[in-house]
Amino acid sequence: MIPERWQVLARAPPRAWGPAVASGRVRAVPEDFVVEEALGFAPAGAGAHVLLSVRKRDANTEWVARALAREARCRASDVGYAGLKDRRALATQWFSVPASRRAAEGWRGLSGEGFEVLDACAHTRKLPRGAHAGNRFSIRITGLTGDPAEVGARLDRIRTAGVPNYFGPQRFGRDLGNLAVLAGTAPGPPGARSRPSFTLSAARSLVFNAILAERVQTGTWGQLCAGDWAVLDGRGSIFAVTAGDAELGERSARLEVHPTGALWGRGLPPTTECVHALECRVAGELPEACQLVEAAGMAQERRSLRVAARDLTWHFGPQTLQLDFRLARGAFATSVLAELLDGDTVRAGEV
To answer: Do 173 and 117 belong together in one domain?
Structure first.
């Protein structure tokens, strides 16, 4: 059986802004959850690969990648994509395939079960994971209950102060199958044992969520503390926090800089003082997860504890709420929804 604490950390970690102020239904149909991937760079226009803009509906990213591999007559591992996108959604994302006899323009309009190629352009290399800049979300919540004034006030708080950057339930597999493998209580989803990276990812995410949950409970998840390492918003640049840096504190208040938490690996995190003690203590409470990633040779890395919901707007309709916002890569829309909606509403949209 998966430990209860693991289940909470994966599905319902502590909220930052208090109890939910609304409930409803997320993803009654895939069109209620629209995701558009922002690539962050322009295709090269020439090269040994082809970048494909693909719109998928109610389809798994990996399934689409395998379908594209068959069309390109290449191995599935030769198909690149920047990140996994929700299945129960209308999602537009980029893939890459090796160049073949099919010219780039020959890919446009190609369709298969659950997907359609919207655009194609030659490019110099395979699209690596994490290559995108972020994602834009357009989410419609139906059957909405809740005081519009309270909902609006909570959304305004989210817009100005951000939300905890938890890994979403998707990271832990359908029915938390990747955690079941980690716990050794079940074989997990089909193919899980042949794809150990999924279990490693879940283990690392579990430790991070635990560290972030601790900082949420102490009210320091959005504050730069002595001993912290910070990250520039939307970038990978991290640096040690100097105590008493007023300018850095002001930039943090403007969501330009965020504190980070440990993505566990070999050795110890670079933090110092009370932050270091907290991270080591929390990690020590999850020995199975830490030992797995350490044995795999993974290095200590950092991830932002906070994410800004940029360009957040909302609109109320008859028992509906329309949300539009964009997030940096690696962040989960469920982290935004969890600060607004009850847990049953958020979990109902996991599939």
So the answer is: no
